[in-house]
């Protein structure tokens, strides 16, 4: 019998890859417990997350050991939603599922959502709200008030920080602030009042008179004018006004002229030399110039003297020449002027 000996063949041994490792925030395209060499898996990020690093695709090798998997996912980001005019946005971060909150500045009211959440598609769950300025009602105006106000643009409403200005019909006077401002709580700041004001008859003045004073009652802003009897003059305001305090704004006075107590002297008055005897007096606030002698240099210099309500002080340097001395002594007004 012929025996044939068959040579045994080696069997091919394939190792199986186990279930691939789980990656945070990601899943695979298959869900098997074992993979043959050559089989491929693909990772993908969960909704709301995006790949950060590493390959998405991995193939089971003949060794049955998955290569190191470096695939990672991170949260998707939403764009910054601002700015919010006249308000603020409070943000911790802009990642998926993060929540941002909205608020308005003082004097503004939030119109719209108070918060919004970042969604899986990278958009916000709610649109940006608006901050609307607080509106104040028209201010109450008394029967005797005339209201004017400042506002921005051409709108008809009063909004936060708008300012209005008050005035009163005469003869009523305004007491309190002339302006009021629309406040954050929708109310106006303190409003003024219009009150009737009377002043007593104006007092007469010495050496003068009052025009248009033939009345018994005078009201706020009424005026009277004063005049002086010649040769007295008035060098301050000649008009007085009834103030909101119930008193007159001022009481003018009549100023007296000045007599010149000299008989022999040449003075400078209104730009020309004149004998003092030709000047009986000068009016209040007028100035004359006297000529004084500097004996060491035999020259003369001018010194002013002003009339103040009937008083005129002759300069100490001036010496009046007697009749006898004037015959041979040169008049200082005709001497050579001193250089300084």
- Detail the poorly predicted runs: none
Taking the alpha carbons of the first and last residues, their distance comes to 167 Å
Q: Rg to the nearest angstrom? A: 52 Å
Strand order in the sheet with the most strands: 27-26-29-30
What is the mean predicted local confidence, pLDDT? 88
Tell me the structural class. Answer: mainly beta
| Total number of strands | 30
The fraction of residues assigned to DSSP E strands is: 25-35%
The amount of helix comes to under 10%
Largest sheet: 4 strands, antiparallel
Number of helices: 0
Write the layout of secondary structure elements.
Blueprint: E1 17-18, E2 26-28, E3 34-35, E4 40-45, E5 49-53, E6 57-59, E7 72-75, E8 87-90, E9 99-104, E10 108-111, E11 115-117, E12 130-133, E13 135-136, E14 145-150, E15 158-159, E16 163-168, E17 172-175, E18 179-181, E19 193-196, E20 198-199, E21 208-211, E22 218-219, E23 223-228, E24 239-241, E25 258-259, E26 266-269, E27 272-275, E28 281-282, E29 287-294, E30 299-306
Antiparallel strand pairs: 1-3, 2-4, 4-6, 5-7, 8-9, 9-11, 10-12, 13-15, 14-16, 16-18, 17-19, 20-22, 21-23, 23-24, 25-28, 26-27, 26-29, 29-30
